[in-house]
Design goal:
Helix content is 37%, strand content 15%. It is α/β, with parallel strands linked by helices. Helix 4 links the parallel strand 5 and strand 6. The chain is globular, with a radius of gyration of 21 Å. The protein has a seven-stranded parallel β-sheet, with helices on both faces. The protein has a six-stranded parallel β-sheet with strand order 10-9-8-11-12-13, sandwiched between helices.
């Protein structure tokens, strides 16, 4: 019965889509969504905010799609639509440019004169993706990813190493835009204002130092693997770097439903529901992660990053293979709590900075803080070239 209802809904949605395909495409309309509408974050956010800050209000018609519009109150400057609503289908069907950071489903049927930009959700990654990880991914996802790649007009790349991965693993042979990752532009900003605004949103006192623990998900979605002794880690950070510390815990979006099991304390904050991990990294003095691609964004800051991988053997066997050997990365890695504490104690900033610069050179990073600007210049050219 559930499958029948699902099929009826899909058939109805497709009929609505083709009805709205009869409406003209609006040349200056740009449609955004991030992680299927669950977040206001990642590169789509930074592209849209660049538009709002640098263009006249009537230059672009900016539309964002969200699962829950009421949870995004306070975000201003653009139209908001609820995913799968009638208005949602109208806006996406009549937009010239569609920008997202994840795969689109069968319910995005691209029109001839539309321009679809795939930002992806990392500038570089440790875990193998797409075709390289095909034997570990669900069949329905593989089918969706292949169809999505055929729709794509432009794929963003943060470094030469990423471009090589995309070419071999993305089922895509179109244009790759090698001008950086819009989400990483934030790491080239300076000034106390940006930092203080984020602290205020998180209700954190300005003088405190911040450690961000941002691990990725596992297939089984269990959270026991993240069971660090947070207080011991904070004490070691205080001894090594001085100051008073607080730890922000941000689980992967796939784990948001079970993150409520983790309770806040005076020194531990659960920020899994915070949309923008880039802002969390921007204010953090230290990052702790495992196999997550956030390590490569944080790389730009040259601030300490530590890897905690207690399940390394089982992860490689049961979840994903990796593009890099952990020993070849500048980030000290630990398989036990004590190893992590020891790595903090033994951390050498001079050696670490040297290793980071070598890695940035190896991957040939394109990040320079101008990714959003470069992309908007590209979009303007495409709108003129492919006018409707």
């Amino acid at each position: 019965m559930n499958s029948i209802i699902t099929n009826l809904k899909k058939t109805s949605a497709i009929a609505i889509i083709y009805f709205f395909h009869c409406f003209p495409i609006k040349r200056n309309k740009i449609f955004f969504f991030s992680y299927y509408g669950s977040q206001y974050g990642d590169s789509p956010k930074y592209i849209s905010e660049y538009i709002l800050k640098n263009y006249p209000k009537d230059k672009f018609d900016v539309v964002w799609a969200f699962d829950e519009i009421e949870q995004k109150k306070g975000i201003t400057g653009f139209k908001e639509v609820k995913i799968m609503s009638l208005r949602y289908f109208y806006e996406i069907c009549t937009s010239k440019v569609i920008i997202t950071n994840f795969r689109t489903t069968d319910l995005f049927i691209k029109r001839k004169n539309q321009y679809y930009i795939q930002t992806w959700h990392s500038s570089l990654r440790l875990k193998q993706i797409e075709k390289d990880a095909e034997d570990t991914l669900p069949r329905h996802y593989i089918q969706m990813a292949k169809k999505d790649s055929l729709k794509c007009d432009l794929l963003l790349s943060g470094c030469e190493y990423s471009t090589k991965i995309f070419k071999q693993a993305f089922w895509y042979d179109g244009e790759i835009f090698e001008h950086g990752t819009p989400a990483n532009d934030i790491f080239f900003k300076t000034g106390i204002k940006n930092r203080s605004e984020i602290f205020e949103k998180l209700d954190i006192p300005l003088g405190v130092k911040v450690a961000l623990y941002a691990p990725t998900f596992r297939k089984d979605n269990k959270i026991s693997v993240y069971d660090l002794n947070y207080e011991e880690v904070l004490n070691e950070l205080k001894k090594k770097f001085g100051g008073n510390w607080i730890l922000l815990l941000r689980l992967h979006p796939h784990l948001s439903a079970i993150s409520s099991e983790i309770k806040n304390t005076d020194t531990i904050r659960n920020v899994t529901s915070y949309d923008d991990v880039q802002e969390l990294m921007y204010i953090s003095d230290v990052l702790i992660t495992d196999y997550s691609s956030v390590m490569f964004s944080f790389l730009i800051t040259k601030k300490p990053c530590f890897l905690y991988v207690p399940d390394l053997e089982s992860y490689l066997k049961n979840d994903r293979k990796l593009y890099f050997n952990l020993r070849d990365l500048p980030f000290p890695s630990a398989t036990t709590q004590q190893d992590l504490v020891n790595n903090i104690h033994d951390f050498n900033q001079e050696r670490y900075t040297k290793d980071i610069l070598e890695l940035l050179d190896t991957i040939n990073s394109y990040e320079n803080g101008n990714a959003s600007r470069n992309l908007l210049q590209k979009i303007e050219k495409e709108i003129v070239k492919k006018g409707t």
